[in-house]
Amino acid sequence: MTYAIPGRRRGLRAASAVGAVSLGLLALSACEKPTPLTTVTVGDTTVTTEAACYEDGDKLAQKKFGKCLEKKAEESITVEAGEKIRFGVEPAMAETGWMLFVNGQPVLPEPVDQTYRSFPGDAFFQQQGGAGGGEPQKTQVSVVETKDGDVYGVWHLRIERAG
Predict the structure, then answer these.
(1) Which residues contact 42 (CB under 8 A, 6 or more apart)?
(2) C-alpha span between 152 and 132 (Å, rounded)
């Protein structure tokens, strides 16, 4: 005949519960809150980018913003002559406002408060200062979440001309 030892079983259950809770907390602490995403579509091709710089909704320091604008885009999309480029942002970004920067320079007079906006693709390849050389074949576009001169995040994408 076998007898259960009540104190021992209770101790095992308690140890198991403590272990499960500890593992659960460890798993949660390893998770990072994802950054908002921007989506760029040309024709049937869509590219989604995560933020190059984002402080969980807090303002970026001006120095950090300047350095962030210098980072190179990891994602790219190709555009044919005459195609439109569609930019999409998450609703929270649209509430704050966002602007486009091309090669580190703002190209919109004021922030956009829409989640979606399209632009002619050819506009991103106009010659940007300097003599000679013709139009560039690729350019870096940055989506900048901004309000009242403060910056909250930066997303980069390289746009390449087809052909």
Answers:
(1) 77, 78, 79, 80, 83, 84, 85, 86, 121
(2) 37
**pLDDT single digits (tens) 105-143:** 999 999 999 999 999 999 988 755 545 556 778 999 999
Q: For the full predicted model, state whether its pTM sits above 0.85.
A: no
**Which residue in the block uniquely carries the two structure tokens 């950090």?**
64
Query: Read out DSSP for 49-108?
Result: EE-SEEBTTBPBPHHHHHHHHHSPPS-EEEE-TT-EEEEEE-HHHHHH-EEEEETTEE-S
**CA–CA distance, 131 with 148 (Å, rounded to integer):** 35
Contact 157, 140 (CB under 8 A): yes
